[in-house]
Write a structure and sequence with these properties.
alpha/beta, Rossmann fold, 5-stranded parallel sheet, 5 helices, 5 strands, about 15% strand
Length: about 210
């Protein structure tokens, strides 16, 4: 059965744009038929711990004699790697927190970005579709003072696209805090339109990928 791995990392369980949009993708995926299943990983609700030891960055065969890893820590890492490998399509919600990905998502990246396992001469995920939904509270347009301050989107492209070789479909919405911050209020209508357009794009991708 075609399987979607649906990952969220927003700490906002009530008003998150990234959660709203990844949910739209997952709903459109399920609508394709009962055989289209979804595996859910909510990195905020069920948080992964940060790496217990730097030895987890390496495959077991590449660790030095003094790099000891507890069996339960190796098992936790293998669980998220196997979950990623088993999926046919992946969708990841990645709000921009202080100009980068949430720490909960970074903890997941640290457990799956393992040379010799998913990258570093081997790419078992090569060609697998991954859709990232980056929601940005502000704006980072070319020519603005904050141009280049989005350090989350490049991380996702480097790890998922370049290192893993996955087919990366980035979807980005901006000014999502226009309904809360007075300085962004003039962009509120544009921000709502951008979210609506993103939903259309994601629903289309959900019906064609996999």
């Amino acid at each position: 059965m075609p399987t979607l791995l649906h990952i969220d990392s927003s700490a906002d369980l009530a008003h998150s744009r990234s959660r709203e949009l990844t949910a739209a993708f997952a709903d459109a995926w399920r609508a394709r038929g009962p055989e289209y299943t979804v595996v859910r990983r909510d990195l905020h609700v069920d948080q992964l711990p940060h790496l217990e030891t730097s030895a987890l960055h390496w495959a077991a065969a590449d660790r030095t004699a003094d790099e000891v890893v507890a069996p339960e820590d190796d098992q936790r890492r293998q669980e998220v790697i196997d979950e990623l490998l088993a999926a046919d399509v992946v969708v990841i919600g990645a709000p921009l927190y202080n100009y980068t990905v949430p720490s909960t998502l970074k903890a997941w990246i640290d457990r799956v970005h393992v040379p010799g396992v998913l990258t570093g001469g081997v790419q078992p995920l090569a060609g697998k579709p991954v859709v990232t939904v980056v929601s940005r509270g502000g704006t980072y347009d070319a020519g603005t003072p904050t141009e280049g301050w989005d350090h989350g989107s490049p991380v996702l492209q480097i790890v998922l696209g370049a290192a893993f070789g996955m087919k990366h479909y980035p979807v980005t919405v901006s000014a999502t805090l226009a309904d809360r911050l007075p300085d962004l209020a003039p962009l509120a209508e544009h921000a709502r339109a951008e979210v609506a357009d993103a939903r259309v794009t994601l629903e289309r991708l959900a019906t064609t990928l996999g």
